[in-house]
Amino acid sequence: MAKSPKRSGDEAKPDTPSAADIEAIIHGTHGDPFAFLGVHEAGKGHVARCFIPGAETVVAHNLAGEPVGELTRHHDAGFFSGTVNLSGVLPVRYRATRGDAEWTVTDPYSFWPILGPMDDYFIKEGSHLRLFDKMGAHPIKHQGVDGFHFAVWAPNARRVSVVSDFNDWDGRRHVMRLRRDTGIWEIFAPDVRAGATYKFEIVGPHGELLPLKADPYARRGELRPKNASVTTPELEQVWEDEAHRKHWASINQRRQPISIYEVHAGSWQRRDDGSMLSWDEMAARLIPYCVDMGFTHIEFMPITEHPYDPSWGYQTTGLYAPTARFGEPEGFARFVNGCHKVGLGVILDWVPAHFPTDAHGLRHFDGTALYEHADPRQGFHPDWNTAIYNFGRLEVLSYLINNALYWAEKFHLDGLRVDAVASMLYLDYSRKEGEWVANEYGGRENLESVRFLQQMNAHVYGSHPGIMTIAEESTSWPKVSQPVHEGGLGFGFKWNMGFMHDTLSYFARDPIYRKHHHQELTFGLLYAFSENFVLPISHDEVVHGKGSMIAKMPGDDWQKFANLRAYYGLMWGHPGKKLLFMGQEFAQWGEWSEERSLDWNLLDYAPHEGMRRLVRDLNFTYRSKPALHARDCEGEGFEWIVGDDQDNSVFAWLRKAPGEKPVAVICNLTPTYHESYEFSLPVAGRWREILNTDAEIYGGSGKGNGGRVEAHATGSGWAKAGLTLPPLAVIMLELEQ
């Protein structure tokens, strides 16, 4: 564009663009449209060139609406040029006509670039931590004109254009400017408003026209089955969560009660007609429910944009966009704000391990393996038929790390549960010999993925100290939840998949056989403090033919409910933070399906309502008793009392915290009723029964200790007590003094 105004008396030379340039513009093959279209110096004046398909006449105007030159049509396809009388360096608008029709076009090629050399520098270095403010589509006022700035990474493309309703999806009209140092294409599209659907039209390195691509950084997408990106305003939310965020940033999360309610937003509840709730409708129902139930956090299965409902969000095509299924992004921000106002945290299930191969997504984004590895032994996931991110590329790392920071900053999320970490750590994950590529040292560890996870955690915790990251990691990889500076991966917590597997295996057995599998409940305590664990009963345990939690339990209906109540009592008394998938708190019989609401009608029946009350009371007991949570991740918070009574399938332990009254957790995991089970407690005196899973209010038989137990000194240190152990039940005792 011209850098100096026309001087009075100067005259521009007539513009005679070459036929080759005109043909290249018309066919969308011009190597640098910004060097040809727009306003340019011509001798002592200026010329303007534009391509407006369908126009018969074009008159150029300045932004004040004053005509500055009538352009000549050089090609019937709509190419015009001519001298213009400019008195300053300003963008131009064209008034085009065809018959009786008249419309105005602001010239996108008459604007300067938006990204600057410092952006280029940090992008190339891989240290740009504000890419979510630079890439994608953002509303700005540029050189006095409102519009949207678009930027996308496609270093191997011959051409990249924004196509949309505002240009009739014509890839010749908003061809982007290539920043060669970074491979990023950008353009300012004037007069574009929020709500416009758009994609990128990309010509690959060999001249091939690729399927239209959604914006990797789009902050909003269309509702499936449509899949275009949508221009959206910058998120504006009046946040009222300073106290909530300050609390979590100031404490040691390992020593706080954390009880997580895992939710699939599309099927927790639905409207009467079966359609999905909006975020505001969900806030009115889900937030009060979780507060009443005593959960500390809601963990959403992925709510980033995804095309296929049965993927549950784990095959995402829009990592930066809250899915349109529940409304606009502002609705999700309001939901999080509402949670924080009542002390609830919000955790997002985050999927940086892989992405789907849908044509509009990231795969072969610019005609090459850009986000993924080119070698299928590294870049294709055989279990899920997805592509694996290339963690060796700085641009891919920046894309993912910025995404984690984006959710923490823009939506004030309290945590990220990182999906499929095990698949990221091992190069031979789900692969046979010869189907994987070793690392530089000949090993199976994915060192590039390790570096990514360490960098992600370091940046997230460094900039948002109140956040927590949780790894779904099912192997014995060391130091998953240890700091990066100590050689760890840097996660705050790790899912304890061993606890889930062993305890479910034990409880699925008929109680008569449990004595032969005693170690399934004791073995986990050998490693319970090697990581900061979350005990997960997640959606994975109630799908794909596994049945619901109540359906896993053996025996008749009464025994099934008693077993499940005992299971939850054991879990809430066991070291580790808690996670429970929706519907399991009231013992839904049916296996979970994303297609419909939970079976809330079951709460009309006493056994199911009793189960809900138990989970509620377990949550509030766990939260109110520091002995049950303050040393969840430290060995000093646990001590066996009875660990070897396999004949009776009785287990008992102490939960402790410095300066707090201890809590004894006693589990009787057979239907045998013990009226006077001899038992040791660390202190003589009266111990109060603070919870009994066999209580009538929970649907149990009502057996128990009348609310208290007397422990008598023996002179040998510990005191003795005769306990009533209800059948298939867990009781908790706390010293009354």
UniProtKB/TrEMBL annotation:
Keywords: Carbohydrate metabolism, Glycogen biosynthesis, Glycogen metabolism, Glycosyltransferase, Transferase. Coiled coil: none annotated. It comes from the Bacteria. It catalyses: Transfers a segment of a (1->4)-alpha-D-glucan chain to a primary hydroxy group in a similar glucan chain. It holds the Pfam family Alpha-amylase. SUPFAM superfamilies: (Trans)glycosidases (SSF51445), E set domains (SSF81296), Glycosyl hydrolase domain (SSF51011). One of its GO terms (molecular function) is 1,4-alpha-glucan branching enzyme activity. The active site is at 419 (nucleophile), 472 (proton donor). Pathway: Glycan biosynthesis; glycogen biosynthesis. Residues 262-631 form the Glycosyl hydrolase family 13 catalytic domain. The keyword Methyltransferase does not apply. Gene3D superfamilies: Glycosidases, Golgi alpha-mannosidase II, Immunoglobulins. It is an enzyme of class 2 (transferase). CDD domains: AmyAc_Glg_BE, E_set_GBE_prok_N. Its EC number is 2.4.1.18. Catalyzes the formation of the alpha-1,6-glucosidic linkages in glycogen by scission of a 1,4-alpha-linked oligosaccharide from growing alpha-1,4-glucan chains and the subsequent attachment of the oligosaccharide to the alpha-1,6 position. Monomer. PANTHER family: 1,4-ALPHA-GLUCAN-BRANCHING ENZYME. HAMAP family: GlgB. Belongs to the glycosyl hydrolase 13 family. GlgB subfamily. This is 1,4-alpha-glucan branching enzyme GlgB. It comes from Peteryoungia aggregata LMG 23059. The lineage of its organism: Bacteria, Pseudomonadati, Pseudomonadota, Alphaproteobacteria, Hyphomicrobiales.
